[in-house]
Automatic annotation (TrEMBL):
Signal peptide: none annotated. Residues 359-369 have a biased composition (Polar residues). One of its GO terms (cellular component) is endoplasmic reticulum-Golgi intermediate compartment. This is Endoplasmic reticulum resident protein 44. It comes from Cuculus canorus (Common cuckoo). Mediates thiol-dependent retention in the early secretory pathway, forming mixed disulfides with substrate proteins through its conserved CRFS motif. Inhibits the calcium channel activity of ITPR1. May have a role in the control of oxidative protein folding in the endoplasmic reticulum. Required to retain ERO1A and ERO1B in the endoplasmic reticulum. The lineage of its organism: Eukaryota, Metazoa, Chordata, Craniata, Vertebrata. It is found in: Endoplasmic reticulum lumen.
Length: 387
C-alpha cells in the first residue's frame, strides 16, 4: 500500500540537538514522532505520519502554524532522555516549545492524526455574549474567565496561549468590550471560578502579558495538587517520571480525602515536582492493596509507590501529626524507606531491648509497576493497538 502515499511531498522535519529548540519554540503546534528504525511499529507509522502531514499542510500552509517532526531516538538518545521516551513510536504534542503532558494515544491513521491536529488548532476559549452566561456555568468544573477590552491585544494573546496549553484541565471563557465592561473596573481581568456553587472566586493579580506568571497561576488553579489516579490515566501519570504518594479510600469517603488534601497542602507543598500526590478508589485498586497486605476494609490507607516497591504509611490517624507525612516523603528521597524495606528498621530507630524483625529477602514489587514504562509491556500494548 506504500504507493498510496506520497512521501515526496511530506514536510517532516528531522530534529537533532542543534535545531530542536529553535524549531519547536517557533511552532504554534508541533507533533513529534519519536521513533527507532528497528521498531516495526515505527516503520509502519512513517508513511501514515507523512501523509497526515501532507493533509494538514494543505489546511495550514504557514510553516509555523503546524510542524510535523521526528526524532531518531537511536541517533539522538539525549533528546529521548530529555523527553522521557521509553517506547516507540511515541507521538508528543508541543505548543511554542512546551511539551504537553498528554501524548497522542489515538488511532494510527491519517484521518485520526489529521483530526487530532484540527482539534488542537480549534479555539479553546468560548466567547461569552452576555454576563448572565457566567451565572449558569457548570460549577463542577474549573472555570477561568477573562474580561478584556478588546480581542486584538497582548493581554488576550497571552490568555489565549495559556488556554491552548491547559484547555484539557480547565474551561476557558472570555468576554470583550461592552459585554465585559462591568468586570473591568480596574482594567482587563482574569478570574478563577473553582468547583462548588459557593466557592469564592480568585482574581489573578499579576501582569497579563507575563506568560510565565499567568501560566503558573492558571496551572496551579487548573491542575489539582492531589489528582485521582484511574486505569485510564495511570500510564500518563507514570510517564511524568515521579513517584506516587497515594491515598487509597472508598469512593464515598470524602472526609479522608479532604484530610489528605489539607495535609499535603500544609506539609508537602515544597515537595511538588518531586512526587505526585494522588488518590485512588480502594474498590477499583484492590490489586495494589493486596501487594501491601491490605484490603478495602483497611482503607483509608496511604502508601508511596516508587515503581520499585510500595511503602505503607504506618497509621492513617497519624496524618495530622505535624511533620509526619513530610518525613515519610523525605525518607523516600533519602533511601531510608528502600533500605528498611529490605533490611528492617535502622538501628537508631529501634527502641532499647526491641528485637529486630526479619524481613523477606525479596518482598513483592509494586503492583503499580504494571503502569510504569516497560519495554516488554509497551511492546504488548503496541501490538494490541495495531492489530
Amino acid at each position: 500500500v506504500s504507493w498510496l502515499f506520497n512521501p515526496a511531498r511530506s514536510e517532516i522535519t528531522s530534529l537533532d540537538s542543534g535545531n530542536i529548540d529553535d524549531i519547536l519554540n517557533n511552532a504554534d503546534v508541533a507533533l513529534v514522532n519519536f521513533y527507532a528504525d528497528w521498531c516495526r511499529f515505527s516503520q509502519m507509522l512513517h508513511p501514515i505520519f507523512e501523509e497526515a502531514s501532507n493533509v494538514i499542510k494543505e489546511e495550514y500552509p504557514d510553516k509555523n502554524q503546524v510542524v510535523f517532526a521526528r526524532v531518531d531516538c537511536d541517533q539522538h538518545s539525549d533528546i529521548a532522555q530529555r523527553y522521557r521516551i521509553s517506547k516507540y513510536p511515541t507521538l508528543k504534542l508541543f505548543r511554542n516549545g512546551m511539551m504537553m503532558k498528554r501524548e497522542y494515544r489515538g488511532q494510527r491513521s491519517v484521518t485520526a492524526i489529521a483530526d487530532y491536529i484540527r482539534q488542537q488548532k480549534s479555539n479553546p476559549i468560548r466567547e461569552v455574549q452576555d454576563l448572565e452566561e457566567i451565572n449558569s456555568l457548570d460549577r463542577s468544573r474549573r472555570n477561568i474567565v477573562g474580561y478584556f477590552e478588546q480581542k486584538d491585544s497582548d493581554n488576550y494573546r497571552t490568555f489565549e496561549r495559556v488556554a491552548n496549553i491547559l484547555h484539557d484541565d480547565c474551561v476557558f471563557l472570555s468576554a470583550f468590550g461592552a459585554v465585559s465592561k462591568a468586570e473591568r473596573f480596574s482594567g482587563d481581568n482574569v478570574i478563577y471560578k473553582p468547583p462548588g456553587e459557593n466557592a469564592p472566586d480568585m482574581v489573578y493579580l499579576g501582569s497579563l502579558t507575563n506568560f510565565d506568571l499567568i501560566y503558573a497561576w492558571t496551572q496551579d488553579k487548573c491542575v489539582p495538587l492531589v489528582r485521582e489516579i484511574t486505569f485510564e490515566n495511570g500510564e500518563e501519570l507514570t510517564e511524568e517520571g515521579l513517584p506516587f504518594l497515594i491515598l487509597f479510600h472508598m469512593k464515598d469517603d470524602l472526609e479522608s480525602l479532604e484530610k489528605f488534601q489539607q495535609e499535603v497542602a500544609r506539609q508537602l507543598i515544597s515537595e511538588k515536582g518531586t512526587i505526585n500526590f494522588l488518590h485512588a478508589d480502594c474498590d477499583k485498586f484492590r490489586h495494589p492493596l493486596l501487594h501491601i497486605q491490605k484490603t478495602p476494609a483497611d482503607c483509608p490507607v496511604i502508601a508511596i509507590d516508587s515503581f520499585r516497591h510500595m511503602y505503607v504509611f504506618p497509621d492513617f490517624s497519624d496524618l495530622s501529626v505535624p511533620g509526619k507525612l513530610k518525613q515519610f516523603v523525605l525518607d523516600l528521597h533519602s533511601g531510608k524507606l528502600h533500605r528498611e524495606f529490605h533490611h528492617g528498621p535502622d538501628p537508631t530507630d529501634i527502641a532499647p531491648g526491641q528485637p529486630v524483625q526479619d524481613v523477606a529477602s525479596s518482598p513483592p514489587e509494586s503492583s503499580f509497576q504494571k503502569l510504569a514504562p516497560s519495554e516488554h509491556r509497551y511492546t504488548l500494548l503496541r501490538e494490541k493497538d495495531e492489530l
